[in-house]
Amino acid sequence: MSFSFALRLDLIGAIQVYKWSLEGTFKTNMQLAPRIWAMVALLCFDMIFVFATQFARGKAYNLFLCTHIVGFILVLPAVGGAALPSISLINLLTGILP
Predict the structure, then answer these.
(1) What is the residue extent of each domain of the chain?
(2) Is residue 92 a contact partner of residue 84, using CB atoms and an 8 Å limit?
(3) Do the Cβ atoms of 40 and 78 come closer than 8 Å?
(4) Using an 8 Å Cβ cutoff, are 53 and 3 in contact?
């Protein structure tokens, strides 16, 4: 994952949160399952990016490895949950679509 990709994701997320804050709908939006999953996906991508740096890999390889394993395990259902709210998580993980 490149630096520009991570920066774009964070910028889009920050703009959306700022927009919700201005409208006074942040709490309402963050109670919706697709928005929660989108935030989980964003945090997973950030975690993967931060620990993928040469510094983090060199100083704490085991932490790098754990964050990548956990991050990639969580990001798959998170992206699916954010993009396809009509498909349940169980259906998404098992591959059984309605």
Answers:
(1) 3-94
(2) yes
(3) yes
(4) no
